[in-house]
Amino acid sequence: MTPLFAEFIGTALLVLLGNGVVANVLLNRTKGQNSGLIVIAFGWAMAVFVGVFSVAAISGAHLNPAVSIALAVAGKFAWSDVAGYIVAQMLGGMAGAFVMWLIYHKHFESTECGDTKLAVFCTGPAIRHVAGNLVSEIVATFVLVFAILSMVSPKMSLGAIDALPVALLVLGIGVSLGGTTGYAMNPARDLGPRLMHAILPISGKRNSDWGYAWIPVVGSIVGAALAALAHGFN
Predict the structure, then answer these.
(1) Which one, of 188, 19, 15, lies nearest residue 116 by Cα?
(2) Segment 42-63, tens digit of pLDDT
């Protein structure tokens, strides 16, 4: 398996399981309907664990354009490889969202609310406020990336990180900072599935909220870059 294909597969697993737990909690007539934020946060943490564990030895398991950019800013990843990683991650996010939709297809049909269907694919604000939402994404991603960089030995790649600490990190961010915007922290996790929401023939869907879509992308990249710069002062 090549590093780019590993990033595709790892990100697809991440989104399949992460969006899958959201579908299980939000859509009608599922076994986990209405089980709440704690289940979503734990499910996303396990999604990260599976994605990182599966491909860390091959690609370093970035699984996130913001992480790839941050590692390049920190001098731990070649800038020449960033674009390829981002393309693989975005395609993986789209593929994972597509498979999730196939699995929960009948439950999407049983759910009338267009907002709920969108929320399965991508994040959105609890209270819509551009500055506040952007700051939330910047801070959450800063915490994620700064902690990841702190785990990486100077002589090791991201793949040397044990998957469990990263999963616990995501769990902690989810339960602490996830109440405002849903803690995207990852353009491939948000923009990729949002594109699939726009493309797929989902009955009764609303628009894909493109007016908000830039916030998880810009916020995560800014937060990751700031974390890399701050880590460089250590």
Answers:
(1) 19
(2) 999 999 999 999 999 999 999 9
Q: Is 200 buried (19+), middle (13-18) or exposed (0-12) by CB count in 10 A? A: middle
Residues 70, 195, 96, CA angle at the centre, nearest 5°?
A: 75
In this predicted model, what pLDDT tens digit does every residue of 10-25 receive, in sequence order?
A: 999 999 999 999 999 9
- Which parts of the chain register pLDDT below 70? 152-162, 234
Secondary structure string (H, E, C) spanning the chain: CCHHHHHHHHHHHHHHHHHHHHHHHHCCCCCCCCCCHHHHHHHHHHHHHHHHHHHHHHHCCCCCHHHHHHHHHCCCCCHHHHHHHHHHHHHHHHHHHHHHHHHCHHHHHCCCCHHHHHHHHCCCCCCCCHHHHHHHHHHHHHHHHHHHHHHCCCCCCHHHCCHHHHHHHHHHHHHHHCCCCCCCCCHHHHHHHHHHHHHCCCCCCCCCCHHHHHHHHHHHHHHHHHHHHHHHCC
Tokens 């609310």, located at residue: 113
pTM: 0.95
Instruction: Give the list of residues 6+ apart from residue 134 with CB closer than 8 angstroms, or none.
Output: 215, 218, 219
Residue among 113, 13, 132, 124 nearest 61 (CA)? 13
